[in-house]
Amino acid sequence: MRKANPPPGRQGPRPLPLHLAAQIATLLGSRAALPSLRNGSLAWNPVLRDRAEALRRQLEPVDAEAFDRALAAESARRMDGFLAGIEAYRRHPYRRRLREPPCAWSEGTTRLLDYSLPGAKGPPVLVVPSLINRAYVLDLTARRSLLRALAKAGHRPYLVDWGPPGAEELKFGLDDYIAGRLVRALAWVRKQAGKPALLGYCMGGNLALALGILKPDLVRGLALLATPWDFHAPDDGQARMVAALGGPIEGAIMMFGGLPVDLLQALFAAVDPGGIERKFRAFAEMGGESERRREFVALEDWLNDGVPLAGPVARETLFGWYIENRTARGAWRVAGKPIRPKGFAKPALVIVPGRDRIVPPASAMALAKSLPNAKILTVDTGHIGMVTGSRARTEVYRPLLAWLAWLASARRG
Protein backbone atom coordinates (compact mmCIF):
# COMPACT_ATOMS: atom_id res chain seq x y z
CA MET A 1 0.00 0.00 0.00
CA ARG A 2 1.31 3.42 -0.93
CA LYS A 3 1.97 5.61 2.10
CA ALA A 4 0.17 8.91 2.37
CA ASN A 5 2.32 11.97 1.83
CA PRO A 6 3.07 14.11 4.87
CA PRO A 7 0.74 17.08 5.35
CA PRO A 8 1.95 20.17 3.48
CA GLY A 9 4.53 22.09 5.46
CA ARG A 10 4.98 19.49 8.19
CA GLN A 11 8.70 18.76 8.04
CA GLY A 12 9.46 17.69 11.58
CA PRO A 13 10.74 19.41 14.71
CA ARG A 14 12.31 22.74 13.81
CA PRO A 15 15.09 23.24 12.92
CA LEU A 16 15.19 19.64 11.70
CA PRO A 17 18.83 19.64 10.42
CA LEU A 18 20.02 20.85 13.83
CA HIS A 19 18.13 18.14 15.70
CA LEU A 20 19.38 15.41 13.38
CA ALA A 21 22.97 16.63 13.63
CA ALA A 22 22.73 16.90 17.42
CA GLN A 23 21.54 13.31 17.78
CA ILE A 24 24.22 11.96 15.45
CA ALA A 25 26.92 13.89 17.31
CA THR A 26 25.64 12.72 20.70
CA LEU A 27 25.42 9.06 19.80
CA LEU A 28 28.68 8.86 17.85
CA GLY A 29 30.41 10.99 20.46
CA SER A 30 29.46 8.51 23.17
CA ARG A 31 31.47 5.77 21.48
CA ALA A 32 34.37 8.09 20.70
CA ALA A 33 34.59 9.20 24.34
CA LEU A 34 34.50 5.67 25.79
CA PRO A 35 38.29 5.05 25.80
CA SER A 36 38.90 8.39 27.54
CA LEU A 37 36.23 7.55 30.11
CA ARG A 38 37.91 4.22 30.84
CA ASN A 39 41.38 5.67 31.37
CA GLY A 40 40.11 8.65 33.40
CA SER A 41 41.32 11.34 31.01
CA LEU A 42 37.89 12.62 29.97
CA ALA A 43 37.21 16.17 31.16
CA TRP A 44 33.94 16.44 33.11
CA ASN A 45 31.80 19.23 34.45
CA PRO A 46 32.74 19.47 38.15
CA VAL A 47 29.11 18.80 39.08
CA LEU A 48 29.28 15.41 37.31
CA ARG A 49 32.82 14.42 38.25
CA ASP A 50 31.92 12.09 41.15
CA ARG A 51 29.24 10.31 39.12
CA ALA A 52 31.65 9.94 36.19
CA GLU A 53 34.29 8.38 38.45
CA ALA A 54 31.72 5.95 39.84
CA LEU A 55 30.75 4.99 36.28
CA ARG A 56 34.39 4.49 35.32
CA ARG A 57 34.90 2.09 38.23
CA GLN A 58 31.77 0.15 37.26
CA LEU A 59 33.16 -0.32 33.74
CA GLU A 60 36.56 -1.64 34.84
CA PRO A 61 35.53 -5.33 34.96
CA VAL A 62 33.39 -5.12 31.81
CA ASP A 63 34.77 -6.49 28.54
CA ALA A 64 35.66 -3.44 26.43
CA GLU A 65 34.72 -4.91 23.04
CA ALA A 66 31.41 -6.29 24.29
CA PHE A 67 30.53 -2.97 25.86
CA ASP A 68 31.42 -1.10 22.67
CA ARG A 69 29.12 -3.40 20.69
CA ALA A 70 26.32 -2.87 23.20
CA LEU A 71 26.82 0.89 23.05
CA ALA A 72 26.72 0.82 19.25
CA ALA A 73 23.50 -1.22 19.31
CA GLU A 74 21.88 1.14 21.81
CA SER A 75 22.92 4.17 19.74
CA ALA A 76 21.38 2.63 16.62
CA ARG A 77 18.19 1.76 18.53
CA ARG A 78 17.79 5.31 19.77
CA MET A 79 18.46 6.86 16.38
CA ASP A 80 16.03 4.46 14.67
CA GLY A 81 13.37 5.30 17.26
CA PHE A 82 13.97 9.02 16.85
CA LEU A 83 13.67 8.84 13.06
CA ALA A 84 10.58 6.61 13.29
CA GLY A 85 8.95 9.15 15.58
CA ILE A 86 9.67 12.00 13.18
CA GLU A 87 8.30 10.03 10.24
CA ALA A 88 5.15 9.09 12.17
CA TYR A 89 4.66 12.73 13.09
CA ARG A 90 5.14 13.94 9.52
CA ARG A 91 2.54 11.51 8.17
CA HIS A 92 -0.08 11.86 10.88
CA PRO A 93 -3.45 12.95 9.43
CA TYR A 94 -4.33 15.38 12.26
CA ARG A 95 -5.36 18.90 11.26
CA ARG A 96 -6.37 21.69 13.62
CA ARG A 97 -9.93 22.57 12.63
CA LEU A 98 -11.19 24.61 15.57
CA ARG A 99 -13.31 27.49 14.42
CA GLU A 100 -11.61 30.78 15.21
CA PRO A 101 -13.68 33.21 17.31
CA PRO A 102 -14.56 36.64 15.91
CA CYS A 103 -12.02 39.42 15.87
CA ALA A 104 -13.29 42.21 18.11
CA TRP A 105 -10.48 44.73 17.58
CA SER A 106 -7.30 44.92 15.55
CA GLU A 107 -4.33 47.13 14.89
CA GLY A 108 -1.59 46.18 12.46
CA THR A 109 -0.97 42.44 12.83
CA THR A 110 -2.39 42.43 16.39
CA ARG A 111 -5.92 41.12 16.88
CA LEU A 112 -8.24 40.73 19.86
CA LEU A 113 -10.24 37.50 19.60
CA ASP A 114 -13.54 37.36 21.48
CA TYR A 115 -14.13 33.92 23.03
CA SER A 116 -17.29 34.94 24.88
CA LEU A 117 -20.27 32.65 24.51
CA PRO A 118 -23.45 34.18 23.01
CA GLY A 119 -25.25 36.32 25.56
CA ALA A 120 -22.43 36.15 28.11
CA LYS A 121 -22.56 38.89 30.72
CA GLY A 122 -19.78 37.73 33.02
CA PRO A 123 -16.60 39.63 33.89
CA PRO A 124 -14.10 40.17 31.07
CA VAL A 125 -10.61 38.65 31.08
CA LEU A 126 -7.87 40.08 28.86
CA VAL A 127 -5.50 37.19 28.06
CA VAL A 128 -1.94 38.10 27.05
CA PRO A 129 0.30 35.37 25.52
CA SER A 130 3.98 35.49 24.70
CA LEU A 131 5.29 37.33 21.66
CA ILE A 132 7.43 34.32 20.76
CA ASN A 133 4.93 31.56 19.99
CA ARG A 134 1.43 31.55 18.54
CA ALA A 135 -1.39 32.52 20.90
CA TYR A 136 -3.46 29.42 20.13
CA VAL A 137 -1.52 27.31 22.60
CA LEU A 138 -4.22 28.63 24.95
CA ASP A 139 -6.85 27.17 22.59
CA LEU A 140 -4.99 24.16 21.28
CA THR A 141 -7.85 21.68 20.87
CA ALA A 142 -11.47 21.49 21.96
CA ARG A 143 -10.37 19.40 24.97
CA ARG A 144 -7.24 21.44 25.76
CA SER A 145 -8.39 25.04 25.74
CA LEU A 146 -7.97 27.50 28.58
CA LEU A 147 -9.93 30.11 26.62
CA ARG A 148 -12.95 27.86 26.14
CA ALA A 149 -12.83 26.83 29.80
CA LEU A 150 -12.97 30.51 30.78
CA ALA A 151 -15.91 31.10 28.45
CA LYS A 152 -17.78 28.01 29.68
CA ALA A 153 -17.42 29.29 33.24
CA GLY A 154 -19.27 32.48 32.25
CA HIS A 155 -16.35 34.84 31.71
CA ARG A 156 -15.83 36.94 28.61
CA PRO A 157 -12.28 36.09 27.52
CA TYR A 158 -10.46 38.25 24.99
CA LEU A 159 -7.24 36.76 23.62
CA VAL A 160 -4.50 39.01 22.26
CA ASP A 161 -3.26 37.36 19.05
CA TRP A 162 -0.01 39.09 18.14
CA GLY A 163 0.29 37.42 14.75
CA PRO A 164 3.53 37.31 12.73
CA PRO A 165 5.22 40.74 12.86
CA GLY A 166 4.80 42.75 9.70
CA ALA A 167 7.10 45.48 8.39
CA GLU A 168 5.86 47.88 11.09
CA GLU A 169 6.03 45.40 13.98
CA LEU A 170 9.57 44.25 13.13
CA LYS A 171 10.67 47.72 14.32
CA PHE A 172 8.76 47.41 17.61
CA GLY A 173 10.28 47.38 21.05
CA LEU A 174 8.42 46.38 24.21
CA ASP A 175 7.17 49.96 24.65
CA ASP A 176 5.38 49.73 21.31
CA TYR A 177 3.68 46.47 22.23
CA ILE A 178 2.81 47.31 25.84
CA ALA A 179 2.31 51.09 26.02
CA GLY A 180 0.90 51.03 22.48
CA ARG A 181 -1.00 47.95 21.35
CA LEU A 182 -1.84 46.51 24.78
CA VAL A 183 -2.94 49.80 26.28
CA ARG A 184 -5.31 50.41 23.37
CA ALA A 185 -6.65 46.84 23.47
CA LEU A 186 -7.26 47.24 27.21
CA ALA A 187 -9.07 50.52 26.65
CA TRP A 188 -11.33 48.83 24.09
CA VAL A 189 -12.19 45.97 26.45
CA ARG A 190 -12.81 48.40 29.32
CA LYS A 191 -15.21 50.43 27.20
CA GLN A 192 -17.07 47.49 25.67
CA ALA A 193 -17.19 44.95 28.50
CA GLY A 194 -16.07 46.61 31.72
CA LYS A 195 -12.93 46.48 33.81
CA PRO A 196 -11.12 43.20 33.04
CA ALA A 197 -8.81 40.91 34.93
CA LEU A 198 -5.46 40.46 33.21
CA LEU A 199 -4.16 36.95 32.54
CA GLY A 200 -0.61 36.50 31.25
CA TYR A 201 1.17 33.32 30.20
CA CYS A 202 4.96 32.99 30.03
CA MET A 203 6.45 36.19 28.57
CA GLY A 204 2.87 37.42 28.25
CA GLY A 205 2.83 37.59 32.05
CA ASN A 206 5.63 40.16 31.96
CA LEU A 207 3.68 42.18 29.42
CA ALA A 208 0.50 41.91 31.50
CA LEU A 209 2.32 42.98 34.67
CA ALA A 210 3.72 46.04 32.90
CA LEU A 211 0.26 46.85 31.55
CA GLY A 212 -1.24 46.58 35.03
CA ILE A 213 1.41 48.91 36.45
CA LEU A 214 0.88 51.44 33.65
CA LYS A 215 -2.94 51.35 33.87
CA PRO A 216 -3.91 50.08 37.34
CA ASP A 217 -7.25 51.88 37.34
CA LEU A 218 -8.40 49.98 34.25
CA VAL A 219 -7.89 46.44 35.63
CA ARG A 220 -9.34 44.39 38.50
CA GLY A 221 -6.47 41.99 39.12
CA LEU A 222 -3.66 40.02 37.58
CA ALA A 223 -3.15 36.27 37.05
CA LEU A 224 0.28 35.06 35.96
CA LEU A 225 1.10 31.60 34.61
CA ALA A 226 4.75 30.46 34.33
CA THR A 227 6.02 34.03 34.18
CA PRO A 228 9.81 34.53 34.43
CA TRP A 229 11.28 37.34 36.50
CA ASP A 230 14.69 36.59 37.98
CA PHE A 231 16.62 35.40 34.94
CA HIS A 232 19.63 34.47 37.08
CA ALA A 233 17.66 32.12 39.34
CA PRO A 234 18.40 29.46 40.36
CA ASP A 235 21.66 30.20 38.50
CA ASP A 236 22.86 32.19 35.51
CA GLY A 237 23.21 29.18 33.18
CA GLN A 238 20.66 30.42 30.66
CA ALA A 239 22.13 33.93 30.78
CA ARG A 240 25.60 32.56 30.01
CA MET A 241 24.22 30.53 27.11
CA VAL A 242 22.56 33.62 25.61
CA ALA A 243 25.72 35.68 26.16
CA ALA A 244 27.80 33.05 24.36
CA LEU A 245 25.43 33.28 21.39
CA GLY A 246 25.23 37.07 21.48
CA GLY A 247 27.18 37.55 18.25
CA PRO A 248 25.09 35.17 16.11
CA ILE A 249 21.87 36.53 17.63
CA GLU A 250 22.83 40.12 16.81
CA GLY A 251 23.95 39.06 13.34
CA ALA A 252 20.61 37.38 12.64
CA ILE A 253 18.72 40.46 13.84
CA MET A 254 20.78 42.72 11.58
CA MET A 255 20.25 40.41 8.61
CA PHE A 256 16.54 39.65 8.99
CA GLY A 257 15.22 42.56 11.04
CA GLY A 258 14.12 40.11 13.71
CA LEU A 259 15.06 36.83 15.29
CA PRO A 260 14.07 33.97 12.93
CA VAL A 261 11.86 31.15 14.14
CA ASP A 262 14.48 28.43 13.69
CA LEU A 263 17.02 30.32 15.79
CA LEU A 264 14.43 30.79 18.53
CA GLN A 265 13.63 27.08 18.41
CA ALA A 266 17.31 26.24 18.64
CA LEU A 267 17.61 28.36 21.79
CA PHE A 268 14.67 26.53 23.38
CA ALA A 269 16.13 23.16 22.41
CA ALA A 270 19.40 24.07 24.12
CA VAL A 271 17.57 24.26 27.47
CA ASP A 272 16.98 20.48 27.32
CA PRO A 273 19.25 19.04 24.58
CA GLY A 274 17.93 15.49 24.93
CA GLY A 275 14.27 16.43 25.11
CA ILE A 276 13.54 16.29 21.37
CA GLU A 277 15.01 12.81 20.99
CA ARG A 278 13.17 11.45 24.04
CA LYS A 279 9.75 12.73 23.06
CA PHE A 280 9.90 11.53 19.45
CA ARG A 281 11.10 8.09 20.47
CA ALA A 282 8.22 7.95 22.95
CA PHE A 283 5.82 9.00 20.18
CA ALA A 284 7.08 6.20 17.94
CA GLU A 285 6.51 3.71 20.74
CA MET A 286 2.89 4.73 21.35
CA GLY A 287 1.72 2.72 18.34
CA GLY A 288 -1.75 2.65 16.81
CA GLU A 289 -4.13 5.59 16.75
CA SER A 290 -5.13 7.30 19.96
CA GLU A 291 -6.13 10.62 21.48
CA ARG A 292 -2.65 10.83 23.00
CA ARG A 293 -1.07 10.67 19.54
CA ARG A 294 -3.39 13.35 18.17
CA GLU A 295 -2.64 15.61 21.12
CA PHE A 296 1.10 15.09 20.62
CA VAL A 297 0.79 16.11 16.97
CA ALA A 298 -1.43 19.09 17.84
CA LEU A 299 1.14 20.40 20.30
CA GLU A 300 4.08 19.69 18.01
CA ASP A 301 2.34 21.50 15.14
CA TRP A 302 1.97 24.53 17.41
CA LEU A 303 5.62 24.37 18.46
CA ASN A 304 6.68 24.35 14.82
CA ASP A 305 4.29 27.15 13.86
CA GLY A 306 6.32 29.92 15.44
CA VAL A 307 6.77 33.53 14.41
CA PRO A 308 9.89 35.73 14.31
CA LEU A 309 10.61 38.05 17.20
CA ALA A 310 10.97 41.75 16.36
CA GLY A 311 14.60 42.85 16.52
CA PRO A 312 14.30 45.49 19.26
CA VAL A 313 12.19 43.13 21.38
CA ALA A 314 14.76 40.36 20.93
CA ARG A 315 17.53 42.67 22.15
CA GLU A 316 15.49 43.91 25.13
CA THR A 317 14.50 40.42 26.26
CA LEU A 318 17.53 38.29 25.44
CA PHE A 319 20.19 40.86 26.32
CA GLY A 320 18.28 43.08 28.75
CA TRP A 321 16.34 40.38 30.62
CA TYR A 322 18.47 37.25 30.37
CA ILE A 323 21.98 38.71 30.45
CA GLU A 324 21.49 41.94 32.44
CA ASN A 325 18.53 40.66 34.53
CA ARG A 326 16.87 44.07 34.36
CA THR A 327 13.56 42.72 35.60
CA ALA A 328 14.78 41.37 38.94
CA ARG A 329 17.18 44.32 39.36
CA GLY A 330 14.32 46.81 39.05
CA ALA A 331 15.90 48.35 35.96
CA TRP A 332 13.23 47.45 33.38
CA ARG A 333 11.19 50.44 32.23
CA VAL A 334 8.21 50.75 29.92
CA ALA A 335 7.26 54.19 28.61
CA GLY A 336 9.71 55.58 31.15
CA LYS A 337 8.02 53.93 34.14
CA PRO A 338 9.90 51.36 36.27
CA ILE A 339 8.20 47.98 36.13
CA ARG A 340 8.52 46.69 39.68
CA PRO A 341 6.10 44.12 41.12
CA LYS A 342 5.68 46.06 44.35
CA GLY A 343 4.02 48.75 42.24
CA PHE A 344 1.03 46.50 41.54
CA ALA A 345 -1.06 46.46 44.72
CA LYS A 346 -4.22 44.87 43.32
CA PRO A 347 -5.04 41.17 43.83
CA ALA A 348 -2.79 38.75 41.96
CA LEU A 349 -2.61 35.01 41.43
CA VAL A 350 0.73 33.46 40.48
CA ILE A 351 0.77 29.83 39.32
CA VAL A 352 4.26 28.33 39.17
CA PRO A 353 4.86 25.00 37.36
CA GLY A 354 7.16 22.92 39.54
CA ARG A 355 8.63 20.98 36.58
CA ASP A 356 9.22 23.91 34.25
CA ARG A 357 12.46 23.73 32.24
CA ILE A 358 11.84 26.92 30.25
CA VAL A 359 10.99 29.15 33.23
CA PRO A 360 12.72 27.70 36.29
CA PRO A 361 10.39 27.74 39.31
CA ALA A 362 12.85 29.94 41.21
CA SER A 363 12.63 32.57 38.47
CA ALA A 364 8.83 32.70 38.60
CA MET A 365 8.73 32.51 42.39
CA ALA A 366 10.86 35.65 42.63
CA LEU A 367 8.04 37.55 40.93
CA ALA A 368 5.33 35.92 43.05
CA LYS A 369 7.06 36.89 46.30
CA SER A 370 7.57 40.47 45.10
CA LEU A 371 3.88 41.17 44.46
CA PRO A 372 2.36 42.70 47.61
CA ASN A 373 -1.11 41.12 47.26
CA ALA A 374 -0.47 37.77 45.60
CA LYS A 375 -1.78 34.28 46.13
CA ILE A 376 0.88 31.73 45.11
CA LEU A 377 0.16 28.25 43.79
CA THR A 378 2.78 25.68 42.73
CA VAL A 379 1.55 22.90 40.46
CA ASP A 380 3.22 19.64 39.46
CA THR A 381 3.33 20.32 35.71
CA GLY A 382 5.72 21.57 33.06
CA HIS A 383 5.74 24.88 31.22
CA ILE A 384 3.45 23.93 28.33
CA GLY A 385 1.69 21.12 30.16
CA MET A 386 0.22 23.62 32.61
CA VAL A 387 -2.08 24.91 29.85
CA THR A 388 -2.36 21.90 27.51
CA GLY A 389 -1.61 18.79 29.57
CA SER A 390 -3.92 16.09 30.88
CA ARG A 391 -3.78 17.62 34.36
CA ALA A 392 -4.19 21.23 33.29
CA ARG A 393 -7.95 21.28 33.93
CA THR A 394 -7.65 20.20 37.56
CA GLU A 395 -4.22 21.62 38.42
CA VAL A 396 -4.51 25.02 36.72
CA TYR A 397 -7.92 25.79 35.19
CA ARG A 398 -9.89 24.94 38.34
CA PRO A 399 -7.95 27.13 40.80
CA LEU A 400 -7.68 29.91 38.23
CA LEU A 401 -11.46 29.91 37.69
CA ALA A 402 -12.04 29.88 41.45
CA TRP A 403 -9.75 32.88 41.89
CA LEU A 404 -11.41 34.78 39.04
CA ALA A 405 -14.83 34.06 40.60
CA TRP A 406 -13.55 35.39 43.92
CA LEU A 407 -12.17 38.48 42.16
CA ALA A 408 -15.54 39.10 40.49
CA SER A 409 -17.43 38.74 43.77
CA ALA A 410 -14.96 40.99 45.57
CA ARG A 411 -15.67 43.64 42.98
CA ARG A 412 -19.40 43.43 43.68
CA GLY A 413 -18.90 43.24 47.47
Overview of this protein structure:
- The chain has 413 residues and is α/β, with parallel strands linked by helices.
- The chain has 2 domains: 12-91 and 274-306, no CATH class; 103-234 and 308-412, Rossmann fold (3-Layer(aba) Sandwich), CATH 3.40.50.
- The protein is 50% helix and 12% strand.
- The protein contains 16 helices and 12 strands.
- It has helices at residues 16-39, 49-59, 64-90, 146-152, 174-193, 203-214, 237-244, 246-256, 261-271, 275-286, 291-303, 311-323, 326-329, 361-370, 385-388, 392-412, and strands at 103-107, 110-114, 124-128, 156-161, 197-201, 222-225, 258-259, 309-310, 333-334, 337-338, 348-353, 374-379.
- The strands form 3 sheets. The chain has an 8-stranded mixed β-sheet with strand order 1-2-4-3-5-6-11-12, sandwiched between helices.
- Strand 1 and strand 2 form a beta hairpin.
- Helix 1 (16-39) runs antiparallel to helix 3, helix 3 crosses helix 10 and helix 7 packs across helix 12.
- It is globular and about 75 Å long.
- It starts with 15 loop residues before the first helix and ends with a helix.
- The mean pLDDT is 93.
